[in-house]
Amino acid sequence: MALAIVPAWAACSPAIAQVGQAATFDIPAMPLVAAIGRLSALTGISVGGILRVPSGVRSRAVRGPMSVAAALDQMLEGTGLRAVRLDARTYRIVAARRPVLEGAIRRRTPVAPVPPPSGDIVVVAAKLPGAISRRNGNVEVVSLDEPVGLVDQRGSASDLTAQLPSLSATRLGRGRDKLFLRGIADSSFVGPSQATLGQYLGEARVNYNGPDPGLLLYDIDRLELLKGPQGALYGAGTLGGVLRIEPRRADPSVSGGFVDAAISATAQGTMGHAIAAAVNMPVVEGAGVRLLGYRRLEGGYIDNLGRGLRDVNRTTVEGGRAQLHLDT
């Protein structure tokens, strides 16, 4: 498609004095702009308009006795354009309307949902679960097949910056870190403005204008990172994107669990440890619960000599989670 600007033509000494009178025309087929110019010169009418028309469009030949309006309509036939009369000697060229068949009823044919291909990653952070290969936009998924403990250095979401290059953290300490995505940041300190990265645990948001809550990634199925503004799905506070932590769901059909423990040593500091346990069990038919509890001590190494305190930067993180599943 090419943008064609049709100027207005007006003849100073028209060959046909009255536009409404019939005249004999002999205008062969030619480029549309040239044909309209010739008709304007013969009749003294003004024709104009700014249109998007196909490049190289040609007019139909106009031959025989007819009125100016009929000649203009015949010239534009088949071009996808039509002439609108503004006054006795002025016409505007506009796009032709598509004919609508009388009594025709347009119905939308329901489209059956296409199941995702087997083995593909299904993204649930987009509200409607769908295969990642069918989603528009940039999405990163980190699967956590094994329980996350102390030794793998992935205690919380802020510890995943090495695996997710677009994710960055302020590194101010547990409970004070702020996460940023794609370099979109406001400040490293907590203030009245909303966060630029929305963090969710399942369907529940866990930050607003505060820092990363530092949830330890025990019993987590995967993390989904939606890059770019997500205001249409999640509202304000998602200018950089959304980080969704998807926990393992309660399953009423199986029984199982795990226990994870680790210890650590800090040079000239306190010993550290981490322990976590989770259990999944059916209650009755169609109902099950999943329980998780954890505690983690990160050994400190800074001494406050003035107050006589040792290892003042040690950190303790405790948490738990309970889920109930009911088949409906």
Written account of the structure:
This protein has 328 residues and is mainly beta. The chain has 3 domains: 2-95, Phage tail protein beta-alpha-beta fold (3-Layer(bab) Sandwich), CATH 3.55.50.30; 123-247, TonB-dependent receptor, plug domain (Ferric Hydroxamate Uptake Protein, Chain A, domain 1, Beta Complex); 256-326, no CATH class. Helices cover 8% and strands 36% of the residues. It is built from 3 helices and 19 strands. The chain has helices spanning 32-43, 68-76, 231-234, and strands spanning 2-6, 23-27, 46-53, 62-66, 81-87, 90-95, 122-123, 130-131, 139-143, 167-169, 179-181, 197-201, 204-205, 220-227, 241-247, 256-264, 272-284, 287-298, 315-326. The strands form 6 sheets. Strands 9-14-15-12-13 form a 5-stranded mixed sheet, with no helix packed on it. A 4-stranded mixed sheet has the order 1-3-6-5, with helices on one face. A 4-stranded antiparallel sheet has the order 16-17-18-19, with no helix packed on it. The longest helix is centred in the N-terminal third of the chain and has 12 residues, at 32-43. It starts with a strand and ends with a strand. The model is unreliable at 1-15, 100-105 and 147-151 (pLDDT under 50).
Overall geometry: elongated
Helix run count? 3
Query: Regions with pLDDT < 50 over 5+ consecutive residues?
Result: 1-15, 100-105, 147-151
Write the element-wise H/E pattern from the N-terminal end onward. Answer: EEHEEHEEEEEEEEEEHEEEEE
